[in-house]
Amino acid sequence: MQHEVSEYQLKSGGRGLIVNVPGAPVMASQFQFRAGNRYVLDYQHKSQTAHIMEHMAFGASDGFATAHEYDATFTKNGAIYNAYTDDVSMVYEATCADFEWSRVLGLQKYAICQPHFNQDDFASEVGAVRSELIGYLSQADRVLWPRVAQAMGDDTKTFQEGLDSIPNITAEDIREHWRRTHTAGNLRFVVAGNFVGRIGQLREILNSFELGAGDRLPIAVDEMHSAPAFAIRRKDVPGIGLAISLVVPRKLSDAENEAMSLLNHILNGTLHSRIQGEARRRGLLYYMWSQLSTFEHNSSWDFGAQVSVSNLPAGVDLVTNEMQRVKDGLVDETELAEAKSYAMGRYQMGTQTVGQIAGWLADRYFFDGVIDDFSAVPARINAISPEQIIETARDIIRHNCWTLGLYGSTDKTMADQLYDRFAKLF
């Protein structure tokens, strides 16, 4: 979809992107604060404060007595709203029909700027959060990957630790967290829709979002390091969750990110890829993935799969051997051209909706303030060479900062054996 992007600074100090999509039938909005778990005042003992606050945001406010009233009003014409929290961000999002875009933004303002966080809502949402976290404890990836991060020095919390923190949290903790984090300077937003002839009205609505004074909060720095192998034993789980994570202590460049995205496609992107495709051909596993994640102070290259105990050694050997081939410089133009062709297709499919456009821009803008030029993506993809891929992968491997974890009916002995097999890469 054709669109124009402009950055706008509110009179209060908040900043965001207005995305004009002429003729769009819907509006999509996201409002973000650095207000996630890591910004909780007593993070060690009350880590779920931010999560509970996010659940309470659509409750009682200056405009509504109860969450039921808010929901009935918000959704009466089919509009959708949600919020989510991670270690860094708290994001409020909505999608609605074009004819009610201004009404929906006004309703979002109640949740973001005028919540009450009363005791009744607190009691209800504490129960909901507790149920949510209990559900996560039966999901292998939700248990395994936080432990991987912790082992390597990331001060995240497991979902069990989050559960344990809930009895320590009060409604006043929620109100304090909102006051400290939901400030004008800490706000970023992306609003996308048909704003032809409406920019002035949109700016007026956005400037009515009244918040206290404050600055953009910094992102915490964790000192990452290698860690021994570990196993989370679950006797009743025969499919073993496998996690391998490599960390480099810096934020990768855009070109390096693009290179690693193409490499991950070559390794695991399809059923004819080097690792996943070969593993499926040999009947070793159903699915394996790999991805590169870039953060403010470090970047991680992660591999995950679910494998039977008997196939674990062969699966890890396959990953190790293919990574060694990349390290040895074995990436050719033919497979890179295929990966680029796939990436170009996904690029063209990436702006079919207003929500996709808003999401694309928000992912980067909320992270580091960069306005990602969607039209420049093809040139970025085509500029990547085999040498760029090889050197970026080598640099991550060269840092020798990694760990391996297992989840299921296995043990530390097996984890150590697999660790030793993968260690040959270094």
Strand portion: 15-25%
CATH class group of the largest domain: Alpha Beta
What number of structural domains do the residues give? 2
- Overall residue-averaged pLDDT value: 97
Major beta sheet summary: 6 strands, mixed
Look at the helices and sheets and give the structural class. Answer: alpha+beta
Cα-atom radius of gyration = 23 Å
Task: Tell me what the structure shows.
The protein has 426 residues and is α+β, with helices and mostly antiparallel strands. The chain folds into two domains: 4-208, Cytochrome Bc1 Complex, Chain A, domain 1, CATH 3.30.830.10; 230-424, Cytochrome Bc1 Complex, Chain A, domain 1 (2-Layer Sandwich), CATH 3.30.830.10. 44% of the residues lie in helices and 20% in strands. The chain contains 16 helices and eleven strands. The protein has helices at 49-56, 67-74, 101-113, 119-136, 140-151, 159-165, 171-181, 199-207, 254-268, 276-281, 312-327, 333-349, 354-368, 377-383, 386-398, 412-422; strands at 4-9, 15-20, 26-34, 80-85, 89-97, 187-193, 230-233, 239-248, 285-294, 299-308, 402-408. The strands form two sheets. It has a six-stranded mixed β-sheet, with helices on both faces. Strands 7-11-8-10-9 form a five-stranded mixed β-sheet, with helices on both faces. Strand 9 (285-294) and strand 10 form a beta hairpin. Helix 1 (49-56) crosses helix 4 (119-136). The longest helix is centred in the N-terminal third of the chain and has 18 residues, at 119-136. The protein is globular and about 60 Å long.
Outline:
The protein has helices at residues 49-56, 67-74, 101-113, 119-136, 140-151, 159-165, 171-181, 199-207, 254-268, 276-281, 312-327, 333-349, 354-368, 377-383, 386-398, 412-422, and strands spanning 4-9, 15-20, 26-34, 80-85, 89-97, 187-193, 230-233, 239-248, 285-294, 299-308, 402-408. By secondary structure, it is of the alpha+beta class. Helix 1 crosses helix 4, helix 1 (49-56) crosses helix 7 (171-181) and helix 9 packs across helix 15 (386-398).
